[in-house]
Amino acid sequence: MTAAPDGHPREIVVAASDLTRRYGEEATAVDALRGVSLQVAAGDLVAVMGPSGSGKSTLMHALAGLDQPTSGSVQIAGAEITHMDDAELTQLRRDHIGFVFQFFNLLPMLTAEENIVLPLTIAGEHADREWLDELLSRTGLGARRSHRPAELSGGEQQRVALARALVTRPTILFADEPTGNLDSKTSAEILELLRLSARQYGQTIVMVTHDARGAAIANRILFLADGLIVNELSGATPTQVLEVMGSLQ
Amino acid sequence: MAAVALKGLLRRKARAVLTAIAIVLGVAMVSGTYILTDTIKSAFSTVFTSVYKNTDAVITGRSAIGGEGNEERQVPPSFPAPLLAQVRALPDVAQASGGISDRAQLVGRNGKVISRGGAPALAFSYQPGAERFNPLSLASGNWPSNSKQVAIDASTASKEGFKVGQPIGVVARGPAQRFTISGTVKFGGVSSLGGATMSVFTLPTAEQIFDKQGRFDSIQIAAKPGVSPQQLVAQIRPLLPPSAQVRTGQAQAQKSTDNTNGFLNIFKDFLLAFGGVALFVGSFVIANTLSITIAQRTRELATLRTLGATRRQVLRSVLLEAFVIGLLASIVGLFLGLGLAKGLNSLLVSFGIDLPQASTVFATRTVIVSLLVGVVITMLAALRPALRSTRVPPIAAVREGAVLPPGRFARLGAYPALTTVLAGLALMVVGALVSLSTGTRLLAIGVGAVALLVGVAMLAPRLVPPLVRVLGWPARRFGAAAGSLASANSTRNPARTASTASALMIGLALVTFVGVLAAGLRTRFERSVNEIFVANYALTASNNFSPISIASAKALATVPGVEVVTGVRAGTGRAFGSRLNVTGVSPDVNRVIHTKWLAGGSQAPASLGEDGAIVTKSYAKENHLRVGSPVSLEVPNGQRVALAVRGIYEPPKGGATQFGDLAISTARFDGLYSNPQNVYTFIDTQGGVTPANTRALQTALAGFPDAKLQTKAQFKKNQLEGLNLLLNLLYVLLSLSIVVSLFGIVNTLVLTVFERTRELGMLRAVGMARRQVRRMIRYESVITALLGAAFGIPLGIVLALLVGVAIKYAVFTVPVGTLVVFVIAAVIAGMIAAIFPARRAARLNVLEALQYE
After folding, report:
1. Rounded-to-integer distance, Cα B742 and Cα B727, Å
2. How many CB atoms sit inside 10 A of residue B450's CB?
3. Residue B844: closest C-alpha in chain A
4. Is the ipTM of this complex over 0.95?
5. How far apart are CA B627 and CA B614, in angstroms?
6. What's the pTM value of the predicted model, to 2 decimals?
7. How far is residue B644's CA from residue B612's CA, in Å, rounded to a whole number?
8. Residues B802, B803, B808, CA angle at the centre, nearest 5°?
9. Is there a contact between B481 and A118 if contact means CB atoms under 8 Å apart?
């Protein structure tokens, strides 16, 4: 298993075992996941790759409690989530999970800063001022904090979304194609920010992507094909990632 | 293209239904009103036709001053009975029968008179051998055959639990008398006579209890075969005294029907007005809903344009959609009207308006008007959104987040809205202040009010953001994240919020208008009662307004401790060529009624004698009268009386005048009017109002079940009962338009939830609980409702102020409590409207919502 730089074993924050997910019934049934097990340790930046239809999104949705697996278990921060009801899942999302979406999903009537602190507002908590300022300066949004999404570029909007996911210091941050809607220059900025969050804040991240450059920032890269993990690399270059991907097509 | 429009409509069934409801309710009100009034008219017409079915000619009493049939309580004078023998002697008369018809109340088991819905208590005489003229048939028992028997209508018997052979009290002229029920009767062809009661006596009994010995109220005549009714009438006419008139049976039935139809038409217009208001509100809802759906379909419409659809085709497809919605909604509304007609009738009965019913009349006119009104209003409301839809550029098909280009008038800014508001206000002020006829003034105010409402609705989008800053404060302050988001959401699309709130504004403005105006009338009335009522007790009929027998007042005169009992008689007469209200007053009336004398002084009532008269200031002014001026008064029995003015008084503003237009002495009045009655009787007792005095007076009134003794406070309360009933009826009828506007809120919220699906998914993903989602939608709904109140209530107050000035009868009073209730009601209404959309929003599957495009 992985160990921290100081040699101590790191805490496992996400653990899935033998996950299956079947859509539809009988003859027309499709198995999106066919028995996936994985563990994510605190501080990991895991990229999940795979061709379309490989089940990478389904895996992330199951890990995040957005979708109910057909069988298997998912534990986040030691708690089994597959049988949680809506209220428990809501609480889980507040306490442990952060999301970054492909479409930034910002509220148009709120300012950048208000969007960032939204998860705290919803939970009825107040932002830690220092942490918020740190996030704003780290994401380069300090000067744009009182702008509304309509006045921000796509890259800026995604940076707001990233800061929104980080503001609660979640146990685990799920990023679903975070650069899927951005050009290559802004994609690079977002990836760099994700990498920095993992390295500097020890933020655990699971990112679904089809971008080899994106995957290359991860310390672990999982490859999915036909609902199974078929390969895993740690610390790969984009070229290596593309090679593995090529072998999967 | 038409197929595309209709398929699109099918796909958006839920939305189409929600849109349609706005029109369904208004159309149902229109159709229900027609059905109800047609049914009532048909019942009356059946009654009158059957009354005169076998009658070729009918002689009735004739009031010298006209106005026959207009006042239910004014029975025309009777005529001498010997006329019957003369009629029978005519060669072409086959049969003739004379009868008495009057008013007699039945006393229920609770000792009080049976009075339902202000309907008349009819009394008839029964003539054996004249069956062909008798519209009544026996339901059980026998016709009365002696002076102790009465037959009553079967409906009253069953409602009040009376059976044949049991005793029943009857109030005719004096105290209640006991009769035995000989049988029950019913009217053929009519399922209900409404609240009316019937009692049938033998002719001699009727003569005696109504004090009409040797007189008839009507003679019904059948002609010999081959003689036309017109010929018969021509033969009879020369025999008639001035106090009688003759008509053919058909003409008489028509005359009676026309009289009731006149009233029913006013009543119909009154109810239709509420249907109109509901449709007006509905048009706002439709326009708003279509605007939202078109905004949401921008990409779809743009795609159609890229595929080669012309603007005209887009316009036609949207209008076609509106037409289909309007037509379906109107059809549903039309049939819903059948049910609503029953509901309206129950509503009216519960508010004391109980009218006869026959089998339901569903006229072609009802169908045509309902469908036409529903479709036309829907199409008109759709016009603006449809025109906007044509401005969707084809490029919007490929552009993310494309929005509709602003409307053509947008660049004019707030000017059109401001102009409309100012024009409306100006018209209303003209109506209120410039001296024109009251009708013209009210018309100016009405048109002004509509302009004002439309203008404010146009201006509303600009007012929404600042108002939400204020009205959204409680939500932001106490509603945590859900409250803040709701407040922010309601200003995201100010035009949409404004339009939704405007629909509610109309209903609330009207409710406020009615409430404020009623408060003004009430204040005025209370002030005038306080001013004139200086007696200890008052005596009125149990329904507070019918005149009652003077015997009740006489019975009080002998009660120990009573110092003054003086009744005010009431009747009508004619002088200076027009009808006027005539009263009779006693010399000591000044001791119980305070009057502001302008001439003649407080001794005027005592100086009336045989030929004195008291007139109001306005009557004196109108006819140039001074003390000593002669007045020639004509009374219903045809007599002309020469009077001289002895006093002129000024009645309090807005209240009833103490003594009508003209007062004569009680003694003279009793000599001129058959069956004189008191509208009010005032009593002064030794020691004022005491339990002992009250008891003594009540005991003396035991034989008068219709007489109601009351103190000043009770009198005020009772006299305001009618106004309060009317007010409540108006509230109920106006609530229909408020319900329509609530559907508008539901509509907007549902569409908004739909539009914000992905956003709701995100909110749930970042930790928003279902409860918070529901709360967020609910707050947004309440803020919209409060906006409606913020627009509507001030408008209603302004409207009431101006109408109050125009009619001069109201003291401007703001009923703060009532208005607070309206605001609370708006909040509750907002919460109710949010139930369905909030549930939908909370139930969204997070994952599906996130993936929604």
Report:
1. 22
2. 15
3. A86
4. no
5. 9
6. 0.84
7. 5
8. 100
9. yes
